[in-house]
Amino acid sequence: AQSLVQSIQARWPDVAVSDTEVPKRDWALAWREFFTAVPCGQDFIVIAPWMSEEQPYPDRIPIIIEPKTAFGTGHHPTTALCLEVLSNLFRQGRVGKGGRFLDLGTGSGILGLGAAKLGLTGVGVDIDPLAEENARENKEINQVGDEFQVAVGSVEVLEGLVGDERFDLVLANILAEPLVALAPEITARVKDSGSLV
Predict the structure, then answer these.
(1) How confident is the model at residue 192 (pLDDT cuts 50, 70, 90)?
(2) Contact 109, 128 (CB under 8 A)
(3) So what's the pLDDT on residue 29?
(4) In the chain, at which residue ranges do the beta strands (DSSP E only) sit?
(5) What is the Cα–Cα distance from 161 to 101, expressed in whole angstroms?
């Protein structure tokens, strides 16, 4: 660092350069200070494991997510909006206990966990093996068992997992291009009276 400061001063003598020492700390854990709870819809609160003791919203259903490389901590607007829609569908009586769901592109498992905590059962798939691993970990943290099955793959693996089943609720929070490409296969998995998010 000192060498860089000297190099800058030598190259541009009229530029003011200052340097400061930062106290030593565990930077791998420091980011946690900035991780916030995310209320989603009227029913959910997304929190990290180290926040689960606090319960800042005791009237909401907690979805505990270990933030890793998989998409889905609730901070991205599409994730929050999907949970809000899920909450609305539940309150309208369109989805609930006994219903079946598909979470395509499950990522961290956040949407599937929300559905399972509302009493639905189903399956989540993701093409990223690390996402599937993170979803399994989050299932364990949230004490969600067989009611939410996760697997690596996309729509092509569904036949082996659930046959030609059509679902009461299909969640597909994925990028626009694959969403458009997979639209016929996705819509084919929604029951006639079902909901597609």
Answers:
(1) very high
(2) no
(3) 56
(4) 38-40, 44-47, 61-64, 100-104, 121-126, 148-152, 167-171, 190-196
(5) 13
Backbone angles phi, psi at 193, to 5 degrees: -100, 10
| Residue pLDDT, tens place only, 125-167 | 999 999 999 999 999 999 999 999 999 999 999 999 999 999 9
Is residue 54 a contact partner of residue 45, using CB atoms and an 8 Å limit?
A: no
Residue that the structure tokens 């890793």 belong to? 68
Q: What are the tens digits of pLDDT across the range 26-50?
A: 655 555 666 788 899 999 999 988 8
Give me the residue label for tokens 């219903």.
Answer: 99
Q: How far apart (Å, rounded) are the C-alpha atoms in residues 147 and 123?
A: 8
Helices 110-117 and 77-91: crossing angle in degrees, nearest 10, is: 20
Contact between residue 171 and residue 82 where contact means Cβ atoms under 8 Å apart: yes
Angle between helices 110-117 and 129-141 (to 10 degrees): 30
pTM of the model: 0.82
Supply the pLDDT for residue 26.
Answer: 61
Query: DSSP 3-state assignment of 103?
Result: strand
How many CA atoms lie within 13 Å of 80's alpha carbon, on the beta-carbon side?
Answer: 10
Contacts of 79 (CB under 8 A, 6+ apart): 40, 71, 72, 73, 110, 111, 173
